[in-house]
Amino acid sequence: MDSERYKSNNANNFNVISVYILQVIELFYFAMMAVIFMFAYGVAVQSLLYPNSEDNGGHILYRVFYYPYLSMFQDFEYHLEELEGTQL
Q: Distance (Å, rounded) from C-alpha 85 to C-alpha 47?
């Protein structure tokens, strides 16, 4: 009788673990989609703010992900001059 209880308890634990694994996989898919949309928005913002920029270094990758991050959390007050175009 104890062995039957152990088998059912073990099966329930496996079901709970499999549900958590499926949730983590779905979270990964959501995060990847969010990164793709952030990258697309960042490229559009960079092309509109700096149309003649010839910066091919790593700084442009920083800005491509930084401005969408700022827009997600509405934190533009520290970089307002750069966004308005008064600072190069």
A: 13
Distance CA 66, CA 76 (A): 11
Task: Give 85's contacts (C-beta < 8 A, 6+ positions apart).
Answer: 49
Both tokens of 15, joined, read: 């079901």
- Note the pLDDT of residue 83: 61
Q: State how far the Cα of 88 lies from the Cα of 85, in Å rounded to an integer.
A: 7
Expressed as residue numbers, the domain containing 46 is 2-84
Residue 65 is predicted with a pLDDT of 84
Task: Calculate ∠ Cα 74-79-81, nearest 5°.
Answer: 125
Q: Mean pLDDT, 10 residues at a time, over the chain (88 residues)?
A: 56 75 94 93 86 76 82 68 58
Number of structural domains, the chain?
Answer: 1
pLDDT at residue 40, rounded to an integer = 93
Euclidean distance between CA atoms 48 and 39, whole angstroms: 14
